[in-house]
Structure formats: structure tokens, C-alpha cells
Amino acid sequence: MHRPLTVRFWGVRGTFPTPGSTTLRYGGNTACVSVHLGSDITLVMDAGTGIRNLGKTLAATPSEIYVVVTHNHWDHIQGFPAFQPLYQRRRVHCLLPTLGETITRALIEQMDGTRFPVEFDTLLSDRQVIFDDPRPVLTAIGLHTDLIPLNHPGGGFGYRVCNEGRTIVYLTDNELVPPADALVTPFEAYLEFCRGADVLIHDAQYLPPDMPAKHGWGHSVLYQALQLAVAADVKHLVLFHHDPDRSDDELDAIQTEARSWLRQQGSSIRCTAAFEGLTLHL
After folding, report:
1. Residue range 209-234, pLDDT digits in tens
2. 17 with 242: CB under 8 angstroms?
3. CA 27 to each of CA 49, 75, 219: distance values in angstroms, whole numbers, following the listed order
4. What's the number of domains the chain is made of?
5. How far apart are CA 244 and CA 223, in angstroms?
6. How confident is the model at residue 98, as a pLDDT?
7. Residues in the chain where the model's pLDDT stays below 50
8. Which of 46, 62, 202, 249 is deepest in the core (most CB within 10 A)?
9. Per-residue model confidence (pLDDT) at position 2
10. Domain of 158: which CATH number?
């Protein structure tokens, strides 16, 4: 029998946390998504402020924890020092791949006693830190993983995670149609990377009026993400990394607009604007 595979969203905002009355329904925490294989393995994807609430949940479980990050930007690492399992006597695996000549060390280096009062080396947990390719480690626990470079300032990686015929693709902070001098990975390569995925979580931070002012900032326009999902024949597109200036009502409108566009294309793809607490069972 398949072990249950569950995806949960703990932080869905980009750039900055956005507490306040206009962000209550979708949430104001920055990027963090968890993938649970049964009750004994948890893959944490990005460590924005959403990881704090995830940590509270994991603290009461024996789940083995594996943390990966897409890139070094603050909204993807800033919650890590508040991740409760780090302060318990348990193993926490931090898998930090190489980004060209830069290694995603910022997750660890922020806990240096000056930027955060508790130093990483003093934590109670048994921390396994691997500054290398995370794929062998994740494959060994049943999460067969591929990486793809992102079109994003400073670099980064997207992840495709498969288990027993179920596939999740996580592509945040990715500009599908960047300026020519910023192109790292072409659209066609993302198309093959996403093909047939059960769930595609993709950056959809911008709308057409945001362009061209924000062209090259490393985020996709809504319709680019929709076109990718249709071309790749995914089953469920989750719009992610919401702009910090979007209110709940504006995100409702974006979700409605996206679903209408898909219907007009004759597509049966499900489409959801990510919100904190969204849980998908595969």
C-alpha cells in the first residue's frame, strides 16, 4: 500500500511577511511548504516565517525532518531560527545545494550570535548539514528528486519530488520569461520538468500591470504560470509567492481570473491560490 503523501502550506507570501487585517484568510507568512510521507518523514521546502508554525506541529511528532531551500533570499530563510525541532534532542537534516560558486549557507550563517542571539553550533538537536547535491539523501528515503536552475537574481533551484507515481513540482521565485541576459533555464526546459505533475506550485507574484517595471525581478506573471501548467498537462496548479501588497480580496479575484482563463482554454486543470493551511492529499 502507498504511504499517504500530503502537501501542506505554512507560508505563501513573497518578499516580506504581511500581518494585518487584509491578509487574514490567505496568511501573511513567507514561503514554507511541507511534504509528508506517511507520519515518519517530512520534507520542508523553504524556511520563511511559515516554518515557525510547522515547527510547533513537528515538535510533537517523531517525524524525521529534511530541510531544503530554493535560494538564499531572506523570505526563504528568515523563519529557520524559530524552527522548534532545532531545540530538541532529535536529528534535523539540512540539505543545501550548491548555486554555482555560491553555497546556500545563509540558512545556517544567520544564526551567528549577532543576527540571531542563538548560535547554530549550540543547538540541542543533532544537525546533519550537507552542502551538496540533496538528491541521493532524498532518494534513499523514497522521495526521488530532481533539481532545475531558476531564473532568479542570485540563482536558485526548483524541485520535482516523486514517490510511487505521485509528483510534486515546486518552482517559486522563478521568472518564466526573463530578460535575455538573465535567462538561465528556457521555458521548454521547465515544460519538460513539470510535465504530468500531480501538483505544480509555481510563482505567480505579478500581474500584467506590474510589467515592465518589474521585468527581471525574478518572478512570473500569472498568465505565464497558467500557460506552463496547460502546456505541461499538470493536474493541479497552485499559485504561490503572493505579492506582499495583495489583499485577500485581490487574491480572491486573481484565483477567479485564473480559473476563468483555464475554462476558456478548455482545460480541466484545478487552480488554487495558495493559502496558509491548504492541505493536498495525493
Report:
1. 999 999 999 999 999 999 999 999 99
2. no
3. 11, 14, 20
4. 1
5. 19
6. 74
7. none
8. 46
9. 80
10. 3.60.15.10
Strands (E), the chain: 5-11, 32-37, 41-45, 64-68, 91-95, 98-99, 102-103, 126-130, 144-149, 157-163, 166-171, 199-203, 236-240, 270-273, 279-281
Q: How far apart are CA 229 and CA 202, in angstroms?
A: 9
pLDDT of residue 132: 83
> Who contacts 253 (Cβ-Cβ below 8 Å, separation ≥6)?
none
Task: Give the Cα separation of 241 and 173 in Å (integer).
Answer: 7
Residue 99's pLDDT is: 59
d(CA 129, CA 93): 6
The C-alpha cell 507574484 sits at 205
What is the extent of the structural domain holding 202? 5-281
- To the nearest whole number, what is the mean pLDDT of the chain? 95
Calculate the alpha carbon distances from 115 to 42, 82, 111 in Å: 28, 13, 6
Which of the 8 DSSP states describes residue 3? P
> What pTM was estimated for this model as a whole?
0.96
